[in-house]
Write a structure and sequence with these properties.
Elements lengths: L5 H4 L6 H4 L6 H11 L9 E4 L6 H5 L8 E6 L2 H14 L3 E5 L2 H4 L5 E6 L12 H13 L10 H12 E12 L9 H10 E9 L13 E8 L9 E6 L3 E7 L6 H5 L7 H16 L3 E2 L6 E3 L6 H4 E2 L5 E5 L3 E6 L1 E6 L3 E5 L17 E3 L7 H13 L13 H8 L3 E7 L1 E3 L7 E10 L3 E4 L4 H7 L2 H10 L1 E2 L4 E3 L2 H6 L2 E2 L10 H12 L3
Parallel strand pairs: 1-2, 1-4, 2-3, 4-5, 6-8, 16-20
Antiparallel strand pairs: 5-7, 6-7, 8-9, 10-24, 11-21, 12-17, 13-14, 14-15, 16-17, 18-20, 18-21, 19-23, 22-23
Helix pairs in contact: 7-8
Length: 511
């Protein structure tokens, strides 16, 4: 394998964050080399990397392929020119283009694509509308599921256009590609047009990219000549060598596993959990939530203003009509503007049942007067983020309470650390509102809260959830709609989580 040290050092000359110039690590290149050896034809092919960087991926396989032509495209000038020099010394026919792949890449065709496409936040892309239009205009409208799909998603559609039928692609992609809504269209295209020959995760670190902390996977694809098929996918982990775990059929995955392909790396546990859930559904013990039963909590755009108490103001007195707060002065806030509301999960991590959330949300639906006006003026001086919402910015929370109606009885923590957090969801006998750090279930059934705090649900989170760091994980609203909850109401002691666990296991018949 040939790699010049300068091919990594040149990254220092570009805006890596803006253009997502994270080059594939030696671990990633080792995986790529193993997968290239499985390509049927490696002589006389067109080899391409439409997001070339300094040519790291194409350099790394120069001893394994004998292409008739090598094509690289790179938007950053310095790595592009370096890549041209390096690749020209390794291959006989090289075309390197220093330009935007979304502008020039559509005219090329290739038999083998090896690349680490850009993964950059959508709002940082200056010409994002033009990029999206280019992809849509080439026939991918039905596969773009969001207006902010992510550049890595659009990159795949460009590569699909370039890759000939029967050709192969080896791609380094964010793991989120395979469990978020924005990746659903990409997965649909994969099922239709590709055999997913292998999928690899890295055990030596979350990423396969230099300087990236995001979890990434390497996927090995073969483009079919005819749509749809049922080739098996090899699931690997890399720990210095490729270790095969299973061969699975993506076409036959249960619904819950198909939502999150990271579950493939825990296939046996995932399959066992799916069986428990499917049996509960068949016996009528579980059901799916309706969309109107779950809602995300309130977005505050300045919780240190919209929540009382906060860092500046503490509650020093309450009566039937007012709550007295003290900070840079003492103010009396009328109760009609205050709504009991859960603030952050860490305030409720020691107990499942909430008697009093300990916070009020400030819901101002009219023109503030007297002490409330003074509090609003303090918020303006503090530069509350909600100021960007216009002159009546202080009505922001009130409007959400009127439209979203984020009130309920069960409050699922938006993200959890499974190694430390004992309580994953809270319950209140009276309806409360919550901040955006919770998903609110409107249905009053304490057994649902017990289920969400059960060891089975912890396993579901470990296997099927979105890993956002080495220890923190989360599910999104659509995920909770795909995970059934108890359909019946039975007596359960939520003050004792071990007793609640026994109730859940007895209810589902889990030994």
């Amino acid at each position: 394998m040939f790699i010049d040290e300068l091919q990594y050092r040149v990254q220092e000359l570009v805006d890596r964050k803006k253009t997502s110039s994270y080059y594939t690590t030696p671990d990633g290149l080792a995986v790529i080399r193993q997968l290239v050896k499985e390509v049927d034809r490696r002589d006389g092919i067109v080899l391409m990397d439409p997001f070339m960087g300094s040519g790291v991926t194409l350099s790394s396989v120069s001893d394994l392929v004998r292409p008739s032509k090598v094509i690289g495209i790179e938007v950053n000038r310095a790595p592009c020119e370096l890549g041209r020099r390096v690749l020209s010394s390794l291959y006989s026919d090289v075309e390197v283009v220093c330009d935007d792949a979304f502008k020039v890449g559509w005219r090329y065709r290739a038999d083998l694509i090896i690349t680490n496409p850009p993964f950059v936040r959508w709002h940082l892309i200056e010409d994002r509308d033009e990029v999206l239009e280019a992809v849509v205009s080439h026939g991918y409208k039905d596969y773009v599921t969001r207006r902010d799909p992510g550049l890595h998603i659009l990159s795949f559609f460009l590569m699909d256009y370039i890759l000939r039928a029967g050709g192969y692609a080896i791609l380094v992609l964010p793991a989120s590609t395979f469990y978020t809504a924005q990746g659903s269209g990409l997965k649909r295209l994969l099922r239709r047009n590709y055999d997913v020959l292998a999928i690899v995760e890295n055990l030596r670190g979350p990423s396969f990219s230099d300087g990236s902390g995001f979890k990434e996977l390497i996927v090995f694809l073969r483009k079919r000549s005819l749509p749809f098929g049922d080739a098996l996918t090899s699931v690997y982990q890399y720990d210095g060598g490729l270790r095969k775990l299973y061969s699975v059929s993506l076409a036959r995955l249960p619904r819950l596993m198909d939502r999150n392909w990271l579950s493939l790396f825990n296939y046996e546990r995932a399959e066992r959990l799916v069986k428990v859930i499917e049996r509960g559904l068949e016996e009528g013990l579980l059901r799916y939530l309706r969309r109107d039963e779950i809602v995300r909590g309130v977005e505050m755009y300045g919780p240190e203003f919209f929540f009382i108490p906060n860092r500046t103001w503490s509650i020093v007195g309450e009566d039937e009509n007012y709550v007295v707060i003290r900070g840079p002065g003492t103010l009396r806030i009328p109760r009609r503007y205050l709504v009991k509301c859960l603030r952050r999960p860490e305030h409720y991590s020691e107990r499942a049942v909430i008697r009093d959330p300990g916070f009020y949300a400030l819901a101002i639906g009219d023109e503030p007067q007297d002490d409330l006006r003074k509090y609003v003026e303090w918020g303006e001086r503090e530069g509350v983020p909600a100021l960007r919402l216009g002159d009546r910015w202080y009505q922001h929370v009130w409007r959400q309470l009127q439209t979203k109606r984020p009130y309920g009885y069960i409050f699922i923590h938006d993200k959890v650390d499974l190694t430390r957090n004992r309580v994953l969801a809270n319950y209140s006998e009276a309806p409360l509102c919550a901040s955006k750090n919770f998903y609110v279930i409107r249905t009053d059934n304490p057994l649902i809260a017990a289920w969400l705090n059960s060891s089975t649900m912890r396993e579901v989170l470990e296997v099927f959830s979105k890993r956002i760091s080495s220890s923190w994980t989360r599910l999104l609203e659509d995920d909770y709609l795909a995970i059934p909850v108890p359909s019946r109401r039975v007596s359960v002691n939520l003050y004792d989580l071990e007793a609640a666990e026994r109730t859940v296991r007895e209810y589902l018949g889990i030994s």
